[in-house]
Design a protein that fits this description.
The complex is a heterodimer of chains A (346) and B (150).
Chain A: H1 5-8, E1 17-18, E2 27-33, E3 36-43, H2 48-66, H3 74-80, E4 84-87, H4 90-105, H5 115-121, E5 133-134, E6 151-153, E7 156-159, H6 171-186, E8 192-197, E9 200-205, E10 212-216, E11 224-228, E12 232-237, E13 242-245, E14 248-251, E15 254-255, E16 260-261, E17 266-273, H7 276-289, H8 293-300, E18 304-308, E19 313-316, E20 325-327, E21 342-343
Helix pairs in contact in A: 2-6, 4-7, 6-7, 7-8
Chain B: H1 2-19, H2 34-40, H3 46-80, H4 82-88, E1 90-92, E2 102-104, E3 116-118, E4 124-132, E5 135-143
Antiparallel strand pairs in B: 1-2, 4-5
Helix pairs in contact in B: 1-3
The chains are: A alpha+beta (346), B alpha+beta (150).
Amino acid sequence: MTMTNATAVASVPASWWPVVTGDTTVAVVQRAALGTTARLAVWPPENAGPAMTAVDDVLSALDLQASRFRPDSEISWVHRGDGGLYMLSDGLAEAVRVALAAAAWTGGLADPTVGAALISLGYDGDFAALDPDRPAPAPAPVPAPGWQSVRLDGPLLRLPAGVLLDLGATAKGLGSDRAARAVQAATGNSGGVLVSLGGDVAIGGGPPAGGWPILVADGPGPAQPVRLARGGVATSSITCRQWRRAGRPMHHIVDPRTGLPADGPWQTVSVAAATCADANAAATAAVVAGDQAVPWLAAAGLPARLVDHGGGVCHTSGWPEAAGGRLEPPAASHVYLGAGPVGAVR
Amino acid sequence: MPATTNRKDNAEMDSEREDRGGRVPLPGFGDPDREDWASRSQPAPDRRDGIRHARRMSNWTLAALLAGTGAATVALAHQAFPTATTAGTTAATTTGTGTAGTAHGASGPQVNHSVATTSGSGVTVTTTTHTVNGKTVVTHVRHVPAYHDN
């Protein structure tokens, strides 16, 4: 019997299950997490044990810090205060800082103050428990108050009354970045790691020869295989997490300027960037940016793959045309900044 | 490596100068203390000066040749094997607390099957492998997991 990477993983905790890929040189496992799937690939396969433990710790911590669907999360505690000053944990402070930096970088297109708008549209709880077709129409749209209304100085957050944060444009990317770092630390920086949270991919350590092989998928069409040797890649799409209000289709990517679901020409955007959080923010911003997405991505030097509603595909900044081509993201991050003040109170 | 060879060669020349018990200004190289040294040093016989001069010239010529050869080798290697150079050696630098800057020289393993899929949140591809008549068949099945938001 041929040994697969599933058998290479000596023992898998109950929350994880092995994924068979056909390669024996890496261990691949996945689990449910953060409302989606977390996938972990490591080499050498012997690193899988400590790697899974490290990822578990990161995901548990992030969920307790930033999930607006958990009443016991730190961000829910902040929201219950309805404005004021809050001394955040280091973890949530970093998550908010990254979200605000992403908003500044994207000109407010990936804005964390869309929380109230999302709730108004109906994304007000566990997605799996949402009524997919609510008969009642959505109330008047709620444009985001704007990321500039929030200020973060170190761990001290000033949040105006009525402002609800949703860190969805950056949180999964941040989680992947954190998890990849945690695995490196747990394995003594030996080998390499890839972490994917719902398709937002971060890597650390040494990549396999030629880069980590990943698929870029959209809709029912064939996925494009690419290789990633540094940085991260993320995809934002309006084709998932959809529901209806009074017959009107809704999705989870909100245009902060209108408070309505983004209605630009792109249904899915994949971006490669210096980090997964950068890629996450840029992909979301590109969906919101609509016609301006391509020039913005090109100016930022971000390799991107944009798919329009008709299935047409557009590439920018050196995104590989060929199957198996290598992604070459820029080296500089725009969302991981210093601990100085971010945002401003209007 | 060329740089190491250069340092070694320079060290040998330094030793040669130290053996002489005094500093010797090299032809064409300005020495800030040259005039001061010249006023204190004793003149050596012409023949010994000639031999030393030849040895010094020989050492510096050798050093220059080695450095030049090394530089040319590196340049040719970059032209001839650009993918090999980048495939196994990656340097990613980010600021702050993002994906940690990685610098590694060791090549990773060969991985031929995709290990993850980037797609819209919640859409995943499960990869399964079957062996049919001794041949590996990899199947990717797309599905939307019904996991709850935590």
